[in-house]
Amino acid sequence: QLVESGGGWVQPGGSLRLSCAASGFTLDHYAIGWFRQAPGKEREGVLCISSSNDTTSYTDSVKGRFTISRDNAKNTVYLQMNSLKPEDTAVYYCAVAPKYCPLFEARYHAWGQGTQVIVSS
């Protein structure tokens, strides 16, 4: 099971750090992806970190602003979001994939329940 946390309301230009914590299994053998779904839009991939800590970006819109990292000791993956924009408003989800960051969302499973991020003045 994956549980996301750390969402909330933030003004444009602000920062948030989301956490994706696993229970019942260890994350270090898996790739973890962050996704988001804005109101009225399809879910899109954001970033992924592989079991060997290689990172993959699924969208150019977060490059230079968002980073992904993992702390295997805490069995947690983080999404650091800086310079937030109103268009980053969405429910953010994490999910698991086998070892490497896949090209396709269908390879992910064990989705968390999501955490809401609202960027607004």
Description:
With 121 residues, this protein is an all-beta fold. A hairpin with a 4-residue loop joins strand 7 (66-71) and strand 8 (76-81). It has strands at 2-5, 8-10, 16-22, 30-37, 44-49, 55-57, 66-71, 76-81, 90-98, 115-119.
Question: Topology of this protein?
Answer:
Elements: E1 2-5, E2 8-10, E3 16-22, E4 30-37, E5 44-49, E6 55-57, E7 66-71, E8 76-81, E9 90-98, E10 115-119
- Percent strand equals over 45%
Structural class category: mainly beta
Spatially, the strands of the biggest sheet line up as 2-10-9-4-5-6
- The number of helical segments is 0
Q: What low-confidence regions span 5 or more consecutive residues with pLDDT below 50? A: none
Largest sheet: 6 strands, mixed
Mean pLDDT comes to 96
Give the overall shape, derived from the CA principal axes. Answer: globular
Question: End-to-end distance, in Å?
Answer: 34 Å
Helix amount: under 10%
Question: How many extended strands?
Answer: 10
Cα radius of gyration in angstroms:
13 Å
Helix/strand order: EEEEEEEEEE
Compact description:
By secondary structure, the chain is mainly beta. Helix content is 0%, strand content 47%.
Give descriptors for this structure.
121 residues; 10 strands; mainly beta; 4-stranded antiparallel sheet
